[in-house]
Amino acid sequence: MSQGPRKPVLHLLSILATAGASMAMWAAWLGWDQRYDVQPDGTMTGPYEAWQVIGLVLTLLVPVYWAASRRYFVGAVLGPTSGLTAAAFYDWSDDTSGLFAVGVGLIMMGTLAATAVVSAVTAAITDHRQRPPAAHYLPS
Question: Which of 14, 30, 57, 70 has the highest CB neighbour count under 10 A?
Answer without folding.
Answer: 14
